[in-house]
Amino acid sequence: MNQVADQWKDYECIDAGNGEKLERWKDVILRRPDPLALWPIEEEKDLWIHPHAHYHRSNKGGGHWEYKKKVPESWQVHYRELCFKVSPTGFKHTGLFPEQAANWDFIIDQIRRSKQDIRVLNLFAYTGGATMAAAYGGAREVVHVDASKGMVQWAKENMMLSHLEDHKIRFIVDDVLKFVEREKRRGRTYHAIIMDPPSYGRGPKGEIWKIEEQLYPLVQACMQILDPEALFFLINSYTTGFPASVLNNILCATVAKQHPNGVIEYGEIGLPITKTKTVLPCGIYGRWVKQK
Question: What's the predicted TM-score (pTM) here?
Answer without folding.
Answer: 0.94
